[in-house]
Amino acid sequence: MFSKNTVYIKNIPIGGNNPIIIQSMTNTDTLDTEKTIKQIINLSNAGAEVVRVSVRTLEDIPSFKKICENSTVPIVADIHFDYRVAIESIKAGAAKVRINPGNIGESWKVKEVVKIAKEYKIPIRVGANSGSIKKEYENSNMPRYQALAESALQEVKLMENAGFQDIVISIKSTDAKENFLANKYISEKVPYPLHIGITEAGVYEDALVLSSAGLGALLLNNIGDTIRISIAGDPIQEVLVAKKLLTLLGFKKGPRIIACPTCARTEIKVEELATKVKEWTKDIEKDLNIAVMGCVVNGPGEAKHADIGIAGTKTGGAIFINGEIVETVSENMLENTFKKYIENLIEKK
Predict the structure, then answer these.
(1) Is 68 annotated as a binding-site member?
(2) What confidence category does residue 3 fall into, taking pLDDT thresholds of 50, 70 and 90?
(3) 295 among the known binding-site residues?
(4) What structural domains and CATH numbers belong to the chain?
(5) 302: Cβ–Cβ under 8 A, 6 or more apart, which residues?
(6) Any binding-site annotation on 302?
């Protein structure tokens, strides 16, 4: 279930019935203010709605302040160990902080962070990943996914005990099944928004497949309020993949290109045309199903739920709208005619 509570990261609501938010994280040196701001702008342009930045020590604070002041999206401060860095990040303009209360130290330090977070009215993200399961749970007889979830719940309890409930929870595993079970477990225990992801998912293709399987399963079970696709490399790819995943699953508006896998009956260059259609519609933020089918044997029938489509014929292609053929065109006119039909449909929508 999507979380019951709603948390605000500046003016962006997370949880409840609000849209799922795409996040990413900079991989630039935080002390390099200009480079970090440029990357944040690029991430925002790609579709990131929230960006996380590592704040390692107090030395990063002046640069972090400038980053927050010049960012086009809310900035989350990623903090480890030093409660003073968390406090100064909040004062410097962080829209949210990510800490694990357990590694902050004594309870009074956690309370100091909570005090400032309350004063500035910003949420705190807590949680656990597969590399930070508490020993008392890891050494117990409970399943590993439960140990992971209970480790995160312990962090939540530390926040609650400090009188703080403006919480976002994150549980991440490198194992997709464990990740699913842990997030499902915790979603049934607490009402806080969940930030979901597969941690250390690998390089592009591996991360794409693993994250799509693991996070898709969660989203289709209505679990998850914010999402990050972790990819070793350019974080822009994280945003583009997350955006596409949410669109294809129906959680975000945008075009879906339906294309047949091709066979001996194929009469047109399906992959080439479908790729062009993707390029034509890449900036569209409206629901639009476009089908590119190789032949008329099954084309209109299999893609009759599409808003518009084309099926290859011996001499060109048949263009259909809502399953009904509206025009048959020759091969040399096929691409331009189909593009015009798509443009007209977009204008109507």
Answers:
(1) no
(2) low
(3) yes
(4) 6-248 (3.20.20.20), 255-348 (3.30.413.10)
(5) 260, 291, 293
(6) yes
